[in-house]
Write a structure and sequence with these properties.
The chain is α+β, with helices and mostly antiparallel strands and about 150 residues long. It has 8 helices and 4 strands; from the N terminus they run αβααβααβααβα. The protein starts with a helix and ends in an 8-residue tail after the last helix. The protein binds adenosine-3',5'-cyclic-monophosphate.
């Protein structure tokens, strides 16, 4: 096997092409940051597999944030997520889940590193401009709240 084939085989074994679910939250849509945020993901090399603007229902917000159902901020979070339109999307690329989490930065935007999306555009723990899946399991659950299989590009 030549060198190129070996590198390709190792990449297939160790670097998985993944999909992740991303939501641009109402605060970012209100502040007209959609283009800037989508552009960062595209410039990184991630592929948009699905994307649309939706007015999320309370039921969808409660399902999206179901892991936080018992948290004191749950009701506030659902109110925030449903106060205006959001952009939901599925992105694809090598290690997309970890790569996107790195790009968006810490949940608490006050602590998010400069250069990350939250670090550059937010200053709050709740209104933190963007959400992204934290695992394969989260991706499977989250994207199905908004997309049917036919809405995902091949
Ligand atoms: P997100 O990445 O969408 O996942 C859960 C969301 O809950 C998080 O971003 C914040 O918007 C919100 N959140 C997390 N912790 C807190 C907190 N302590 N107070 C208020 N909102 C929070």
């Amino acid at each position: 096997m030549d060198c190129k084939s070996i590198i390709f085989t190792l990449k297939v074994i160790f670097v998985a092409t993944e999909r992740t679910f991303v939501m641009i939250k109402p605060d970012a849509v209100e502040r007209k940051l959609v283009g800037e945020i989508v552009s960062r993901f595209e410039r990184k090399g991630l592929r948009i597999v699905a994307m649309k603007m939706v007015n999320m229902s309370r039921q969808q917000a409660e399902e999206l944030y179901s892991p936080h159902r018992e948290k004191p901020f749950f009701k506030d979070l659902v109110n925030f997520a449903t106060r205006g339109p959001v952009i939901v999307m599925v992105l694809e690329g090598d290690s997309a889940i970890d790569v996107v989490r790195l790009m968006i930065g810490s949940t608490d935007a006050r602590k998010a590193a400069p250069g990350t999306i939250r670090g550059d555009f937010a200053l709050d723990i709740q209104e933190n401009v963007v959400h992204a899946s934290d695992s394969k399991e989260s991706f499977e659950r989250e994207h199905k709240i908004f997309f049917s299989p036919l809405e995902l590009a091949h």
